[in-house]
Amino acid sequence: MADLTRQNYYQIAELAADAWNLSVANLDLVSKSENVVFRLDTNEGDTLVLRIHRPGYHTLAELQSEQQWTAALNQAGLHVPVPRMLPTGAGYACIAVPGSDEHRYVGLMEWFEGVPLADILDETSDESVVADYFRQLGQIMAKIHNQATTWTLPNNFQRHAFDADGLMGDSPFWGPFWHLPQLTDKERTQILSARHAIHGILSNYGKDSNPQNGTYSLIHSDFHAGNLLINGNQLHVIDFDDSGFGWHQYDLAVALFHYQGSPLFETLYKALIAGYRSHRTLDDDAIELIPLFLLIRAMAQIGWTYARPELNKSDRLPGLIARVCAQSDELGL
After folding, report:
1. How much of the chain is helix, strand and coil, in % rounded to 5?
2. C-alpha distances in Å from residue 178, one per residue of 69, 105, 172, 182, 184
3. 299 neighbors 191 (Cβ within 8 angstroms)
4. Chain-centroid distance, C-alpha 15
5. What are residue 109's DSSP bridge partners?
6. Is the entire prediction scored with pTM above 0.90?
7. Are 192 and 178 in contact (CB under 8 A)?
8. Comparing C-alpha atoms, which of 275, 257, 228 is closest to residue 319?
């Protein structure tokens, strides 16, 4: 796999713009993480998001399925990415990487002008403000789960699963977190014991997708505050790249994960649950599993970070390891 340069990405973006027959006025690289994201302004006055997908993470069928779901969510009245199709009607362009035999899939979406909720929360300590945003977040999350549990999947719809095996199996989707070299023997033993216990709990819990009160369906799976854009009173959900089949409590846990230890955590938790319950049933037994899913998120973050050394986030690992060990102790795992 080629180690692409900034120039390579601009070349790919320009070739993709040609595939969409766009007259480009300006092209700005705005994010280079796992995927590479550009802001594209056309001479006709349109502003678009151009996303170059990393190789090996999703097949074309899986990318098309993500786009089908976001299109259906938009039709259901949710504020999520709006795809821009190629002149052929296809959703993605397959662009050859200049100077190599590789290719990248590229998608195009309408630009949404907004401020990340994470930035807003970092700048305010007003409890009523943050509670209101988390109440809205809970409402939107519930509406997404409502759509997912009633939607008839298109033929050949393909997305990964965050089920017991996908989270805690031998080859979890975000990587084998117990292989981390930084773990002591004691930590590895504890984490493996917790992993085995969690796999059993999730397997026994099952995959109820009942439209009224089920807790398993398509989920966003990366519902952190950086993936929510605010414009006035409108909250727009972005980045469905990790979306797949999973438990609704995982979405709730991801939204809360960053704020564990914050003096506002209890306020955010109550507001999120209240907002969610105003649009979808969530019984007490389901809520009682949220601490378990907070632990699962920490484990997944270890696997994700270990598998992506190029992102230079290894400084997070000691804190994640300590969190996993402390929370597994608290839960008696």
Report:
1. 45, 15, 35
2. 33, 32, 11, 10, 10
3. yes
4. 27
5. 49, 83
6. yes
7. yes
8. 257
**Helix 290-306, helix 317-330: angle, nearest 10:** 150
Q: What is the CA radius of gyration of the chain?
A: 20
List, as own/partner pairs, every contact residues 128-131 make where C-beta atoms lie below 8 angstroms and the sequence separation is at least 24, other chains included. 130/264, 130/267, 130/268, 130/271, 131/267, 131/268, 131/270, 131/271
DSSP, residue by residue, 143-188 = HHHHHHHHPPPPTT----EESHHHHHSSS-TT--GGG-TT--HHHH
Answer positive or negative: Cα dihedral of 230, 234, 240, 246: positive
Residue 23 tokens, joined: 């007259």
pLDDT digits over 31-58, tens only? 888 899 999 999 999 999 999 998 888 9
Q: Yes or no: say if 28 and 39 are a contact pair by the CB < 8 Å rule.
A: yes
pLDDT, tens only, 134-162:
999 999 999 999 999 999 999 999 999 99
Tokens of 293: 């899913």
Amino acid at 194: A
Residues 191, 162: Cα–Cα separation, whole Å:
19
Backbone angles phi, psi at 230, to 5 degrees: -110, 130
Q: Which two tokens stand for residue 266?
A: 């209890």
